[in-house]
């Protein structure tokens, strides 16, 4: 009863997209494991070269080299569908997109800003699907209009991220907790915006819902509301295959509900993280001295930032949480054990099947 996920002529056996999590949280190991189970596995391109020895001295080439390596490693491990998540806010956005296209990646997911010019990087031989990540119906409409006028094409699909997602959020602090910005409501608005565009151009624009999706019941709810699939990041962190250090995963397992907090990121956006001593000191006004080794994010003001978010996230991926912090979705506290990707996905499918046998009584997201 679980539908496939169709993005143009690309078909994933199950409608699960593993969210791209940087820095170093979703790399080739996790992405290939998800793809092997029939979902879309996603590598995050954000500072992907953090393990390269020449990252500081040769930032551009180190990241290109690392992205090529991770895509190729994933290809060796799976015949399934693979994607790359590339943030618009990255200063090396162009390099990362060109590299992903050159490597023949199946899907490019792009958010943290509107990827207004993303189609410009495709050539006649490129087969990569282009999937913007949005947080509103307005963003969907703007992208469709821009891509049609400049490139005579539409996005292949959209990922709609709601305010319960982890990491950087496309919402204000007030919107994060407002019922007006719940994922079911946002999904309805996006679908209504896209419907006349689909009818006019004779295409289907799948919408993949993400942010707070945790159970098979949540998946069932989103699909019943019109989503073509779901994106999940937090659920995949506490898997054996997740590329993060075990201490990063333990931060999820040890977190309580009150430990999931909204922070003001140096990049100028709210973000959801697991509270720890590092973040407590930042909140108290203590500055973490740093030298910016590379201007990795367009929107980061390193002169006024209380810490270097790149170094904080690199430290977190390596398990050095005393010098960084773990981004996480609102439901991270619900994780109780480590399990394999296969076990997780099979459990979600079982829950979906059970939910399909029950009458839906309303939004179950997060419940």
Textual characterization of the structure:
The structure is a single chain. With 367 residues, the protein is α/β, with parallel strands linked by helices. It has two domains: 5-244 and 335-356, Alpha-Beta Barrel (TIM Barrel); 247-323, no CATH class. It is built from twelve helices and 13 strands. It has helices at 28-36, 59-77, 93-102, 137-151, 173-176, 183-201, 216-224, 234-237, 246-253, 277-283, 309-317, 341-356, and strands spanning 5-7, 10-12, 16-18, 40-44, 81-85, 107-110, 129-134, 158-161, 167-168, 207-210, 229-232, 260-264, 270-274. Strands 3-11-10-8-7-6-5-4 form an eight-stranded parallel sheet. It is globular and about 55 Å long.
List keywords for this structure.
single chain, 367 residues, alpha/beta, TIM Barrel, 2 domains, eight-stranded parallel beta sheet, 12 helices, 35% helix
Rough outline:
globular
| CATH-derived architecture of the largest domain | Alpha-Beta Barrel
Number of domains: 2
The top level CATH class name of the largest domain: Alpha Beta
Tally of strands: 13
Proportion of beta-strand residues = 5-15%
């Amino acid at each position: 009863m679980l539908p496939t996920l169709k993005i143009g002529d690309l078909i994933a056996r199950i409608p699960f997209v593993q969210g791209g999590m940087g820095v170093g949280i979703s790399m080739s190991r996790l992405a290939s494991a998800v793809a092997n189970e029939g979902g879309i596995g996603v590598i995050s391109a954000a500072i992907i070269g953090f393990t390269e020895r020449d990252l500081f001295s040769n930032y551009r080439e180190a990241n290109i080299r690392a992205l090529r390596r991770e895509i190729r490693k994933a290809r060796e491990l799976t015949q399934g569908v693979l994607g790359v998540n590339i943030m618009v806010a990255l200063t090396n956005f162009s390099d990362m997109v060109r590299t992903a296209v050159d490597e023949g990646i199946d899907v490019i997911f792009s958010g943290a800003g509107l990827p207004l010019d993303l189609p410009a990087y495709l050539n006649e031989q490129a087969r990569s699907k282009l999937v913007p990540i949005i947080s509103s119906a307005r963003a969907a409409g703007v992208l469709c209009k821009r891509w049609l006028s400049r490139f005579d094409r539409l996005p292949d699909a959209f990922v709609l991220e709601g305010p319960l997602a982890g990491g950087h959020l496309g919402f204000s602090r007030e919107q994060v907790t407002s019922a007006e910005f719940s994922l079911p409501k946002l999904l309805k608005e996006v679908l209504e915006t896209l419907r006349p565009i689909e009818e006019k151009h004779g295409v289907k624009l799948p919408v993949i819902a993400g942010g707070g999706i945790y159970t098979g019941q949540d998946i069932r709810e989103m699909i019943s509301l019109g989503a073509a699939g779901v994106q999940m990041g937090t659920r995949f962190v506490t898997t054996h295959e997740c590329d993060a250090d075990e201490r990063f995963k333990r931060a999820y397992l040890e977190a309580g509900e009150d430990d999931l907090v909204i922070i003001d990121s140096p990049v100028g956006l709210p973000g959801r993280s697991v509270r720890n001593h590092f973040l407590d000191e930042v909140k108290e006004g203590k500055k973490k001295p740093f030298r910016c080794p590379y201007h990795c994010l367009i929107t980061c003001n390193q002169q006024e930032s209380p810490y270097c978010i790149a170094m904080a996230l690199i430290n977190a991926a390596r398990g050095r949480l005393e010098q960084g912090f773990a981004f996480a979705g609102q439901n991270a506290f619900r994780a109780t054990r480590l399990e394999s990707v296969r076990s997780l996905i099979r459990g979600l499918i079982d829950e979906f099947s059970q939910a399909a046998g029950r009458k839906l009584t309303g939004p179950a997201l997060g419940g």
